[in-house]
Amino acid sequence: MTTAILERLSTLSVSGQHLRRLPKILEDGLPKMPGTVLETDVPQLFREPYIHAGYRPTGHEWRYYFFSLFQKHNEVVNVWTHLLAALAVLLRFWAFVEAEGLPWTSAHALPLLLYVLSSITYLTFSLLAHLLQSKSELSHYTFYFVDYVGVSVYQYGSALVHFFYTSDQAWYEHFWLFFLPAAAFCGWLSCAGCCYAKYRYCRPYPVMRKICQVVPAGLAFILDISPVAHRVVLCHLSGCQEQAVWYHSLQIVFFLVSAYFFSCPVPEKYFPGSCDIVGHGHQIFHAFLSVCTLSQLEAILLDYRGRQEIFLQRHSPLSIYMACLSFFFLVTCSAATAAFLRQKIKARLTKKDS
Length: 354
What we know:
This protein has helices at residues 2-29, 62-67, 76-100, 110-132, 137-166, 169-175, 179-200, 207-238, 243-263, 281-306, 308-314, 317-353. By secondary structure, the chain is an all-alpha fold.
């Protein structure tokens, strides 16, 4: 008995030594990473206002930028916030599927599936943009254009579930005819506005660039959130206690906070050089947008489970399929717009280098 215990303790001691050596083993297994550089060491395109250090040098192999996921630089928090959010969305949805036995072939579930797909898409495209954009000027434009496509897809995915699962009858009777076509147009306009602003304006960016980004995205948000806002206001005025409504309320609050930090370079404006790695406004924007998406997902899952009777009374399978088909039409239009402007950027960069 004593011998067995001593052997077990010896094994644990060896295991502990291996664990202590694990960080060194991982470090040796990764390729040698160039250090980060100052803003003066990267082209103007890559510089952010009030961020003085933590930039990754351009022109290295792709694997450097992929492995920079584990390096300390001024984009790493942007990457990890959306990576963790994407994993959280996937795991939460999978848990819901396991618990509820989601009918994958049912028309009733299709808007929910597209919404989850759109959420994971925008989070993935965003983290790839922040992870890989430092490779070159063309990569910078390309990945941010991809990011904007993801945003438009998420906007319309949100519109679908708000329309089918969240809207109350009074709102539905007034807006059912034009809501989804208008949401699809605003989603494309948001992508086109962001891509055009990125193509048209160079650093230091003028105010007009932010207007081209914020106004179309703001219009899309106002339209997409209208069924949610209508239901939230009526619910709170009547004193209802629906759990989903509280999650919808949090969704709105978190989005508005994230929009503020997207639009304004704070706190780095007041502490230039002090928020280079952690704490600048775009990171806070990412964090609040992530919890906004998770709150939205929780609300939608509650609506899906609790409002099926309302859904089935309103919508035929054909109308659902037609609405969801427009999702893929929007993806095609947004991707085509991004690809067109990328070609113009590529031609401009080629002309500059020649």
